[in-house]
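Following up on my earlier thread - several people asked me to post the actual chain instead of describing it. Fair enough. Here it is, all 162 residues.
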Amino acid sequence: RRVPLRRCESKDSVSWAQLEFAGAAPFDDFARDHVLNRKGTGVASSEPQLFDFSIWQHCADALADDVVMPKWFPVDLYTQASAVVHPVTGSASPTVFLAAEGTFSGLHVDFLHTHFWMTLCHGHKRWRVVPRDDLALLYPRYLCDLNPCFPTGLDEAERAAV
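Reply from S.P.:
Thanks for posting it. Predicted structure:
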């Protein structure tokens, strides 16, 4: 099974989260060549990533039985929404994200106000959340659609505010 890949190559990208399409590869080859065999190698940030890939749509035969809702959620939203394809992204939850150490995405906004939870299986990830009322301070540009792109990242914006 081939999976679509994305990579963050340019800070000037107008793609959502600065993630550009980077072709496709068989899942096993991608995981082996770009994730598992890159651990601790100081991987470049532009390595391809598997981004928002629907388990129900594409991997149900292999993964669906292993995706279990944590018991602390009172309502299993994944089961209720699993068959619903999102009208904008074309994806259905739950989805898989897989990337090598050192990869990232650019500053982005969840303009659809989706409700999700994320599990980090290995490694570490830095999440930064900005209050909606502060969005204008990041100088969003609406070039293609409702997804803004940003001329600067949060680190640069914080330095400029000081």
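The chain has a mean pLDDT of 76. That should answer part of your original question.
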